[in-house]
Amino acid sequence: QELSKDNKATCTECREGFILKNGTCVENCEFNFFTIYDTLNGDICVDCKPFCKVCKDANTCDACNAPKVLLNNNCVDECGSGYVVVDGICKKCHNTLCENCAVDQESCNS
């Protein structure tokens, strides 16, 4: 534990079972972070990429913060042609003739 510039205690490593997150020891990283092992500090929380709410690592996003939607492990503004948004995830239309499809991914909307 060290003191920061404003004399607040800042953790530099944590006891077993805890993870270092921005100078504090926590039980889990929660949303917008993932855990990595650092040989110097043990387990630490690292930021997911921008707009990513849940991620496994720096490159794999599993859920996005609204209004972004998930497409191929990335958070994007919209899915684009041939996709439909289902629960915040871009799903490919099963019918390849559809430019836009319904949530069932079968019927065309246009």
- The fraction of residues in strands falls at 35-45%
Largest sheet, described in full?
2 strands, antiparallel
Output mean pLDDT: 88
Which word captures the global form? rod-shaped
Q: What is the number of strand segments?
A: 12
- Show unreliable segments: 1-5
**Helical stretch tally:** 0
Oligomer: single chain
* Main sheet strand line-up: 1-2
The helix content is under 10%
Compute the gyration radius: what is it? 20 Å
Order of helices and strands: EEEEEEEEEEEE
Describe this structure in words.
This protein has no helices and twelve strands. The chain is rod-shaped. The N terminus is likely disordered. It is mainly beta. 0% of the residues lie in helices and 43% in strands.
Key structural traits:
two-stranded antiparallel sheet; 110 residues; mainly beta; 12 strands
How does the SSE layout of this entry go?
Layout lengths: L1 E2 L5 E2 L8 E3 L2 E3 L6 E6 L3 E6 L4 E6 L2 E5 L4 E3 L2 E3 L6 E4 L2 E4 L18
Antiparallel strand pairs: 1-2, 3-4, 5-6, 7-8, 9-10, 11-12
Give a brief rundown of this model.
The chain has 110 residues and is mainly β. The chain is built from no helices and 12 strands. The strands form 6 sheets. It has a two-stranded antiparallel ribbon. A two-stranded antiparallel ribbon has the order 3-4.
